[in-house]
Every structure is written in C-alpha cells, then in structure tokens.
Specification:
The protein is an alpha+beta fold. It is 17% helix and 23% strand. The protein is built from three helices and seven strands. A hairpin with a 2-residue loop joins β6 and β7 (147-152). The protein starts with 19 loop residues before the first helix and ends with a helix.
C-alpha cells in the first residue's frame, strides 16, 4: 500500500498512487545521509521489501494454521543499553496484531532492541505458534549508511494497550543516533 497506494478510480485523484520507486529512492538517500525512518507494525515490511533494510520478516509466508496472533499482549525483553529503551524496565508487554518479527544476529548492521523470550511469550490474549516468535526480535534498528531504520514489530501507540511502548516510540523520535 505504501509503495503502490490506491489504484486510480478507488479514491479522489489526489489520494491515489504511492511512493513508487522514486519515493523509495529518496527515502534510502535520506537514511544513507544520516536520517532516521521509523516504521510501525506492518509498515516495517516496506522497509525490508522496498528500501533494502537488512531485516526480513520471519513470519512472512507462515500459514495461519501454524501461527496466529490476532491482537494480543506479548512479553519482550528490552536491551537496557540501547538508546530507545531509556527510562524503561527490562521487561514489558507489547501489542502484537499481524505484526512482523525478525531473526536476531544475522546481520551486524541490525540491532535487536526488544526480543521475545524463549518461552512464556504470551502475556494476555491468543497466540498459536509461540515457537515462531521465541527468541526473535520485536523491535530492531537497522543501520543504513550514516542513518538508521527503526522497525517496530508491534503497535507502540495502540490504544495504550501497552503503556510503556509509547516511550519506545517517543525515544525513537527524539534520541540522536550513536
């Protein structure tokens, strides 16, 4: 949707179309020059699919009969030394709803900021296929050139369902890159 947008005729003309290849190129140039892009939940797939963020979603293509989490609070462990976690406890719950997740330690330019535990992922709600999330990242920072892309595999602003995750988003917006 970000890349292609709405098709002509589906909306008034001023609201159709997406960023396309030209828009993606400008965003990559912005990050490489030292900018920061922040992606929330499903929009993080745009970062890896169109902008080259080296963080592929490990849940892409997993059948719903194997993994299903329609909207639940899940436990994560935060990296206490990361700039995005300032002012937060080490363990928090995040709102997961059709969210991405990432394998940690695959690419040295990707840092896991929040990671699901090996067991006991579900805090409240419904989760089928916990093994797909165990030990995976829920929030990553991907260094690209002089800048970074911050990928939230959650909805940090979602109806205060996880009060502390709003602080993660705030920190992503106001803290300087290392």
């Amino acid at each position: 949707a970000i890349h292609n947008g709405y098709r002509p005729g589906a909306m008034p003309p001023e609201y159709v179309g997406g960023l396309g290849e030209g828009g993606a190129k400008v965003l990559v140039e912005f990050v490489e020059a030292g900018g920061t892009l922040v992606f929330l939940n499903e929009s993080a797939n745009y970062a890896s699919g169109h902008l080259g963020a080296p963080a592929p979603n490990v849940l892409r293509g997993v059948a719903t009969r194997d993994f299903y989490c329609p909207g639940s609070l899940l436990n994560v462990r935060l990296d206490p030394g990361h700039r995005l976690t300032r002012g937060l406890p080490v363990e928090v719950a995040v709102w997961f709803e059709d969210s991405p997740a990432w394998k940690v330690g695959v690419n040295e330019s990707v840092t896991a900021v929040a990671t699901y535990p090996e067991s006991g992922v579900l805090a409240s709600g419904w989760l089928l296929g916990e093994r797909y999330l165990a030990g995976r990242a829920a929030l990553v920072e991907a260094r690209v050139g002089k800048g970074s892309m911050i990928l939230f595999g959650m909805r940090p602003q979602y109806r205060a369902q996880s009060y502390l995750t709003l602080k993660l988003l705030f920190n992503a917006l106001v803290t300087e890159q290392p």
